Amino acid sequence: MEHLTEPSQKIKPDLSALRIHRDDEEAGTRRGLRVVLLGTALIVIAGALLAGYRMWSAATMPEVEVARATVESSSAGIEILTATGYVVADRKAAVSPKISGRLEYLGVDTGSRVKPGQIIARLEHHDLDAQLSDAKSVLANYQAAHNQAEAELEQARAALGQAQATRQKSGLELARQTKLLEDGVTSKADSDNATAQARVDEGQVRSAEAQIKAIQAKIESSSSQVRSAEARIRLTEAQLEYMNIRSPFEGLVISKDAEVGETVAPALYGGANTRGSVVTIVDPNTLEVEADINESSIGKITPGLQAEVTLDALPGEKLAAEVRKIIPTADRQKATVKVKVRFKVIDPRILPDMNAKATFMQKPEQGAKTDASRVTVPKSAINQRDGKTIVLVFNNGRVVAQQVTAGNEFGDRVEIKQGLAGGEQVIIRGAENLTDGSRAKVKM
To answer: Quick one: 245 exposed, middle or buried, by C-beta within 10 A (0-12, 13-18, 19+)?
Structure first.
């Protein structure tokens, strides 16, 4: 028994060594998870720091305003004056009704295009509809009475014809009886009967003629009644037409001044609770620029003078124009004279009340020698640094100081004879503290 117990006791330690140590594995797993979480947190923190740096850098980056160096043809003319103004329509109408009433129908909205004579709105007209129906009924009655009188006239004329035939017959009989009486062939009684019959037939003729005159008078009266009824119908139809508010010309609706259900009236009689107009229409084919020119410079402007118009809504585009009219009066307070500048071609993107800048161009004299083209930049793009004339070019978020040779001035622009090829973006504002290589962003 002792020999059996001793080996079994030696085996027990070896079997215990084969146990699975679950605590050690869980501890290792936890250590690995902590490493992964720590690495992830470091990556997130690094990304956040990088994003924050970029946001801080973008927020602190100086903002600049830029313009493009343009290539211009010198044959286009020399800029002599620049003025600001607004786009307006020379042909404009606030459309109002001819009479007052409640708006029943409005068929257009802001931005709608209308044709001449198109019905754009209508007033309520139920009472006029009833009046027109009544007038037409009265006219029908008068026309029926007139037709009946004409039929009676035809009958009376037929009766007159018959009476005249009878009178002729009795007249012949009277003449025959008179002759026979003179010859002693007939009796005095037969002659008297013939005379009486002739007188009766003559009376019948005069009665028929009187009846015809009475019927003719009746027809004349019924004709007057028919004409009166027709005039009443025309008057009511004219009043109904006043209920229709039509477009006076082809144009564009730029404002809707009333809504269905509101009371509208001619502008002259509009009250506190009454609309004076329904819509406002402009003719887009008459759009032009109204610019204010200083009195001291108005001598440079003449009708027909060429101009270039730029709009804030169409940056970088120059629209050909010319001076159409100089208003022959001055503004006493502003000391300016209004000039109307007409577009040579109406761009459909041009809208009333847009901001506009008109640059007036003086054509070179015929036969004068001109260069093929020139590069120009705004005056504000020219900088003087260290005795050099430079232009700061904005390229891919960085500032490049470009030395240039400036030439003549043309209005608010300067010719660059050397240093720029045209098409570059040059900084016109915000360049005070910028140097070559500085980072910047375009102000939005």
So the answer is: buried
Its pTM stands at 0.55
Order of strands, sheet of 405-410, starting from the edge strand that comes earlier in the sequence: 70-72, 374-378, 413-418, 405-410
Judged by DSSP in three states, 423 sits in: coil
d(CA 21, CA 154): 139
Give, in order, the Cα–Cα distances in Å from 266 to each of 92, 98, 273.
17, 6, 13
Task: Give the separation between CA 404 and CA 392, rounded to whole angstroms.
Answer: 10
- Express each pLDDT in 17-65 by its tens digit: 545 455 555 555 666 667 777 777 778 777 666 665 555 555 567 888 8
What secondary structure letter does DSSP report for 297?
G
What stretches of 220-335 adopt beta strand conformation (E)?
244-246, 251-256, 263-264, 279-282, 287-294, 306-311, 314-331
HSE at residue 299, side-chain half, CA atoms within 13 A, is 1
CA dihedral over 390, 391, 393, 394, signed as positive or negative:
positive
CB-CB contact of 132 with 239 (8 Å) = no
361, 306 contact by CB (below 8 A): yes
Question: How far apart are alpha carbons 120 and 112 in whole angstroms?
Answer: 10
**Cα distance between the two ends of the chain:** 101
Phi, psi of 368 (to 5 degrees): -70, 145
- Token pair for residue 423? 């098409």
Q: Could you tell me the two tokens for 163? A: 């009476």
